[in-house]
Amino acid sequence: MTAFTYDALPGRVVFGSGTARSRLRAEVEALGAKQILVIADNVELAGELSSSFAGRVAATFTEVRPHVPIEAAEQARAAADGADLVLSVGGGSTTGTAKAVALTTGLPILAVPTTYAGSEVTPVWGLTEAGRKTTGTDPRVLPRTVVYDPDLTRTLPVELAAASGLNAMAHCVEAFWAPRRNPVSSAVAEDGIRHLAAGLADPAAAEELLLGAYLAGSAFAVAGSGLHHKICHALGGAFDLPHAQTHAIVLPYVLAFNAPYAADAASRIARALGVTDPVAGLYQLGARLGVPAGLRELGMAESDVDTVLADLHMPADNPRPVTAAALRSLLHAAWAGKDLT
Ligand code: NAD
């Protein structure tokens, strides 16, 4: 029997090559903005994209930092004084800074993403204070409008595009067992995997990757986060590991752990990847894309596995019961980069 509850999320999406240059002004006007705070880590790009409404740009904030330190959030909030719109142009860290502003000011966000992070379609915010990252969910931080322009992601270095695309893949895979999963989020996740796999196979296919990233973020926003994200969050928080690479390394090991207990998810993931064994398929995809072989290659010490374990809150409804012993062996395998083929 199928039974579920589904809270659909609002938001307008404009997708297409060239849209950041041709459609941004109209989207700013549709939101009735007169005083815009631009948040960006690439000043030149933001200046170029806002040149047709430069008279309405009240301030530009460029001190974007990974994982949104509270100090950066407070500076950005101060810069928002008098603004009626936040325009963010950048990756997940930039969108995250815009979200920190929206969280306390209630200002609407117009997001122009330049990576495959997917944050622009989620109501999830994150802030780091005294080395500890806190996340939360608030409808105020969900951007009102997102302009997805694949021309902007084409400048990503190949390595970063691959890691960011695999990070989006993690959103899709996890959506199959995350706490608020439903048939809609699973359908979106499956199609997201299909587009991401096509995009990752061809470095020139920025459009496939960006569409996949949008679907991935949308599935993640609805389904929520599960075992994989809890592990990566604990790893990132404790050792300041690079976000996208950490996700890319850990994902096949979480899938290997859950797949025997999540047959439907495993077969849908395999189908979307175009392989017979989803675990081997995902592992090989990462290897082909040059994902570091294990967390040890990111500089983490093996003894740190225990530090992470102490920090982990086990998800209650993971398909496979999560015991401390099982988690320890999963983390050791991900640390060593154990071959999953
Ligand atoms: P990022 O925004 O930190 O960007 C990584 C690097 O890529 C930066 O140096 C940036 O300047 C550069 N860059 C960005 N776009 C570029 C482009 N088009 N060409 C060349 N260089 C470019 O990294 P990210 O992976 O996009 O985002 C990671 C952050 O987003 C993490 O803090 C993560 O927690 C957060 N995140 C949040 C959510 C959410 O729902 N709240 C979802 C996903 C990620």
Give structural attributes:
341 residues, Dehydroquinate synthase-like, alpha domain, alpha/beta, binds nicotinamide-adenine-dinucleotide, 12% strand, Rossmann fold, two-stranded antiparallel sheet, single chain, 6-stranded parallel β-sheet
Walkthrough of the structure:
It contains 15 helices and eight strands. The protein has about 350 residues and is of the alpha/beta class. The protein has two domains: about 10-150, Rossmann fold (3-Layer(aba) Sandwich); about 160-335, Dehydroquinate synthase-like - alpha domain (Dehydroquinate synthase-like, alpha domain, Up-down Bundle), CATH 1.20.1090. The protein has a six-stranded parallel β-sheet with strand order 1-8-5-4-2-3, with helices on both faces. A hairpin with a 2-residue loop joins strand 6 and strand 7. Helix 7 runs antiparallel to helix 8 (about 185-200) and helix 12 packs across helix 13. The radius of gyration is 19 Å and the shape is globular. The mean pLDDT is about 95. Nicotinamide-adenine-dinucleotide (NAD) binds near residues 67, 90, 91, 126 and 244.
